[in-house]
Amino acid sequence: MDYNEIIKRAHTLEKEIRQARERLGEMTVEGRAGGGLVIVYANGREEIVAVKISPEVLQEKDVRVVEDLVLAACRQAAEKAKQLAAKEMGKVSGFASIRHMLGL
User: Fold this and answer.
1) Are 100 and 56 in contact (CB under 8 A)?
2) Rounded to an integer, what is the distance from CA 7 to the centroid of its chain?
3) Distance (Å, whole) CA 23 – CA 10
4) CA dist 52 → 34, 36, 73 (Å)
């Protein structure tokens, strides 16, 4: 493979990665805790984008319970977002082999 072909493939890969990241920003996943009393939404870029807390939770006298519910929902949303990102980026041609080489 000559130098020009390597550069061409690198530009193609860069474009595909950029497009995949844009798509990931538009995709959402949710994490739930307390049977849906707390719902946290994250996008495919692993950014928390919204939190919904049922009024029932706010009546809880023990603030630690509320904190635990929010934390559990955040963790679940983050894990789902990470899995979504890995799946979508795995579709990008050549990206999986680059991640492997870099140990990501």
Assistant:
1) no
2) 29
3) 20
4) 12, 9, 10
Q: Supply 75's token pair.
A: 């963790």
Most confident of 6-10, 21-25, 27-31: 27-31
For residue range 33-54, list pLDDT tens digits in order.
999 999 999 999 999 999 999 9
Question: Residue 89 sits in a domain of what CATH number?
Answer: 3.30.1310.10
User: Total structural domains in the chain?
Assistant: 1
Residue-number span of the structural domain to which 15 is assigned:
3-102
